[in-house]
Write a structure and sequence with these properties.
Elements (H helix, E strand, L loop, with lengths): L3 E5 L4 E2 L2 E2 L1 H14 L3 E3 L12 H15 L4 E5 L5 H14 L3 E5 L8 H14 L4 E5 L1 H4 L5 H7 L5 E6 L4 H11 L4 E4 L5 H6 L4 E4 L6 H12 L3 H17 L7 H9 L16 H13 L9
Parallel strand pairs: 1-4, 1-10, 4-5, 5-6, 6-7, 7-8, 8-9, 9-10
Antiparallel strand pairs: 2-3
Helix pairs in contact: 1-2, 2-3, 3-4, 4-6, 6-7, 9-10, 11-12
């Protein structure tokens, strides 16, 4: 259902306020540049510091402005099952094409708790869902055998895998096969994940180089592995510098240097420190991205 290069969309701020005008400009930018789906209000979208009203408003703006020109996979997960259900129902009512559901964070449920969390969602909503596994953020790793227990539920159409473990991802492919799409949640691992059957990526780097990310993924999905690998190599320096500090600090800094958005973010996130920022600026300069704007 979802395929290709999907962007983990930043939430632009002016000062401490959501910049709705710039958010609409980003939607148009990604449509022009070939992104296959928008994924607002995830980790990169600073969901952790948006209040409930802002969270729903960002989804509303993105969905309304997308106007079916591009798919929207709305970030609606929570560490509260009831809250995840409420947000997912709201996104469905707004017209989202699907929902990205992160594993509950901080309270660190057992594997049985994860199964019951996702089963409760499936009984309560009517929208396709992608399970999001990112243990470094949540403190819990949803194991391949646990996802296998959920594969028969038709609403679960995919998994965004950001465990960083290729061996775990290979086991996941072995257990679920083609019954559930698997997407890279780590830009650096996108090419290898595609090479073993992945259907796409939910990308941070695509915020600033959407066309190049889309072209790389499209070449891989078409079986043009040499072309895909060359594009992957061109992207590696950017992927690396965007991981020098906590996401989304580097990508927002990069987009600010590129003249795409104001580099504003909310506490406890702070501006990028000088050493990593200089490395980031050097990579952007080498790629011709400084000051490019939303052209």
């Amino acid at each position: 259902m979802f395929k290709g290069s999907m962007v983990a969309l930043v939430t632009p701020f002016t000062g401490n306020r959501v910049d709705e005008r710039k958010l609409r400009e980003l939607v148009d930018f990604h449509i022009r540049e070939g992104t296959q789906a928008l994924v607002p209000v995830g980790t990169t979208g600073e969901s952790a510091t948006l209040d409930h009203r802002e969270h729903e408003r960002v989804l509303e703006v993105v969905i309304e402005h997308a106007a079916r020109r591009i798919q929207v996979l709305a970030g609606t997960g929570s560490n509260s099952t009831d809250e995840a259900i409420r947000l997912t129902r709201a996104a469905s009512a707004m017209g989202a094409d699907g929902a990205l559901i992160i594993t509950p964070y901080y309270n660190r449920p057992t594997q049985e708790g994860l199964v019951r969390h996702y089963e409760a969602l499936a009984k309560s909503v009517d929208i396709p869902m992608v399970i999001y596994n990112v243990p470094v953020r949540t403190g819990v790793n949803i194991l391949p055998e646990t996802i296998e227990r959920l594969v028969s539920i038709e609403l679960f159409v995919g998994v965004k895998e950001a465990s960083g473990s290729l061996s775990q991802i290979i086991e996941l492919f072995d257990r679920v096969g083609d019954r559930m799409a698997i997407y890279s949640g780590d830009d650096l691992l996108t090419h290898p994940i595609l090479s073993i059957g992945g259907k796409g990526v939910i990308s941070v780097s695509a915020n600033i180089v959407p066309r190049l990310m889309s072209e790389m993924v499209d070449e891989a999905l078409a079986g043009n592995w040499d072309k895909a690998f060359q594009k992957h190599l061109a992207l590696v320096p950017l992927h690396r510098v965007l991981g020098l500090e906590t996401n989304p600090i580097p990508i927002k800094t990069a987009m600010g240097l590129a003249g795409m958005i104001a580099p504003d973010m909310r506490l406890p996130l702070v501006p990028m420190s000088e050493g990593p920022r200089q490395k980031l600026e050097d990579v952007l300069k080498n790629m011709g991205l400084l000051g490019k704007g939303l052209s």
